[in-house]
Amino acid sequence: MNTLTAIAPVITADHDALRRDFPLKPFAIRHKLAGHPLLALPRIAQLASELPRDLIEYNSGKVAISQDPDAIPTVDLDPVEIVKSIETAGAWMVLKRVENSPEYRRLLEDTLLSVARARGFNSLADAGFEQVEGFLFVSSPNSTTPFHLDSEDNFFVHIHGEKFFTIFDNTDRSIVSDDEIERSMTKHRNIKYDESIATRGTEFHLFAGDGCYVPYQWPHWVRTAGSYSISMAITWKTREVRRMNDLHFFNSMLRGIGLPQQPPGKQPALDVLKLAFYRTVTTAIKPLRASMAMRRVLRRIALGRRANYYLKGA
Q1: Within 10 A of 285 (CB to CB), how many other CB atoms are there?
Q2: Residue 254: is it exposed, middle or buried by C-beta count within 10 angstroms (0-12/13-18/19+)?
Q3: In degrees rounded to 5, what are phi and psi of residue 97?
Q4: 25 burial type by CB count under 10 A (0-12 exposed, 13-18 middle, 19+ buried)
Q5: Contact 166, 221 (CB under 8 A)
Q6: 174, 264, 182, 166: which is closest to 219 by C-alpha?
Q7: Which of 17, 162, 264, 272 has a 20 to 30 A CA-CA distance from 229?
Q8: Domains in the chain, ordered, with CATH?
């Protein structure tokens, strides 16, 4: 694990937001990653050729904010071709878990270490930055990422182009219900969007060097402007986030066999028992996940027949 040596500030925020608002509220950030060679199209194309296929997802960028997951238009190109032709491909792509590459892992950890230092901590662990992961987004001009929420905290850094990132309060259940949160986290991330809530969102207008902090489970949607876009989500999971995620997944599995469940936190004593059982089982099957074929099988068993939607045709 990195420690405080000569790590310069990579992410900064105005008005001491890193201390005042983190981790409860979104806020704008600035960063020094624009122009980094690991985040340029040639290196991203190389990464797309190296990652396991189930860590790459892409489709047409011409989708609705409230996109039906069963009707997402596809793009008939392979991942490397998508990156190389992103200016004209009409596509949206995410390369997942880029920390599997040692170079990208160092970039992610050094960036988060600069945040830990700004907040007065000596290491990533001290700051609560556990299970650090990275997600690289490459989008064609005028593309949309539909309304969804994520299962981790996230510093979203914008590298190239112009992007609009609109985020909504996750405590408002009139925007996203408990059932929709569970479904989004365990089935397909897209959630229903009603134009009547538009004025309740906070929009971040991003150019290279801009970004925003996205708290756990805060729903959002994103669109690019007239140029291709490169962005990266630098994510981590705290112990509490991992606990919540495990409960959501186990609740979904129980619901799938006809056993209705209360959201996490409604029955604390039962949550403890669920968590112990779920983690015992998932620890036992963890070695199986080294195989991409077995990952596909396990996802289908746990999450249903649509769990591997992003591998269609692959």
Answers
A1: 12
A2: middle
A3: 55, 50
A4: middle
A5: yes
A6: 166
A7: 17
A8: 11-238 (2.60.120.10), 242-303 (no CATH)
Helix (H, G, I), strand (E, B) or coil at 267: coil
Helix H or strand E segment including 153: strand 153-160
Distance, in Å, from the CA atom of 131 to the CA atom of 295, rounded to the nearest integer, reads: 19
Residue 107, both tokens: 């970039």
205 contacts 271 by C-beta, under 8 angstroms: no
Helix-helix angle 239-256:292-303, to 10 degrees? 70
pTM of the model: 0.91
Q: How many Å apart are CA 179 and CA 186, to the nearest integer? A: 11
Q: What is the pLDDT of residues 121-175, one digit of tens each?
A: 999 999 999 999 999 999 999 999 999 999 999 999 999 999 999 999 999 999 9
Report residue 206 as tokens.
């991003």
| Type of residue found at 66 | S
DSSP structural state of residue 263? P
